[in-house]
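Table S2 (continued). Query chain:
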Amino acid sequence: MSLEQNNADYSVLNYLQLPVVVLSANEHKVVFQNNSFQLVAQHYLDASNNPTNRSLLQLIISKLLENDTDKLEVEINDASYRHIFRFTANVVGEHVIVEGEDITELKRNQFLFNRTNTLLEDYSKQMFELAHTDQLTNVPNRRALFAKFSQLQSKHEEFSCTVSLIDLDHFKRFNDSFGHDFGDQVLVTFAKHVKDSIDDTCYFARLGGEEFCLIQINIKDTFCFANTEKLLQTTKTIKLMTPDNSNIGMSFSAGVAVYGKDGISLDELLNNADKALYIAKENGRSRVVNFEGA
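Corresponding output:
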């Protein structure tokens, strides 16, 4: 069959708006290229992202055929003409028909979709952090504490912990004597001190007001009690400058409950730790008391 006859056979492809080129299967010589392909090929030749001035046909032959791949994406950036085409090769008898599909909108929509997903994921993470973080002290809040306890309980087969309920001593005096801004400073200073004093075996959260909770995970009860005692002693060394330029210290009272012995739910442990905390306050404050159940 002559080349002229081949061209006549494929001339119907000129009615397609998508670029099509027909190559001989063995030698990869051009048999036919429709008008749309010639237009796209000229834009590609002039494109700013084609510094070597390589023709589109050369690219297709080298990348799509010689590399034995059936799809090739080509981006054309020629001033106002910006398009992305996906070329697909199909062998039909002695010829290879390479069809181009304009996927510019598809790529744009994919980009917008991925960008939107990223923004939504970031927003979701931010909302999660806001919902689980105390905004004043920047430590986990009550909601985060309960979620973490549930996670730890299900994660460790032989889970054990102590729950220390901590209450800053005479906090109302700070607010009444020096104002709420100073009271906030006391809370922030104490929270930072605890965060700097504990390791990964502990989880610290603010429950509300001047009340905090410290969970110590998989450590012997006696060590947990000693750690809380040590935390109390280091807290008592903190000195804050008041608005009237005087130094003032702080301390706390704590009640400690042991997982298993004093309960297995966080509600139960906090309730029993609160009973021990009450005893600590009744006996002069600035002390740590273990819960002693009936």
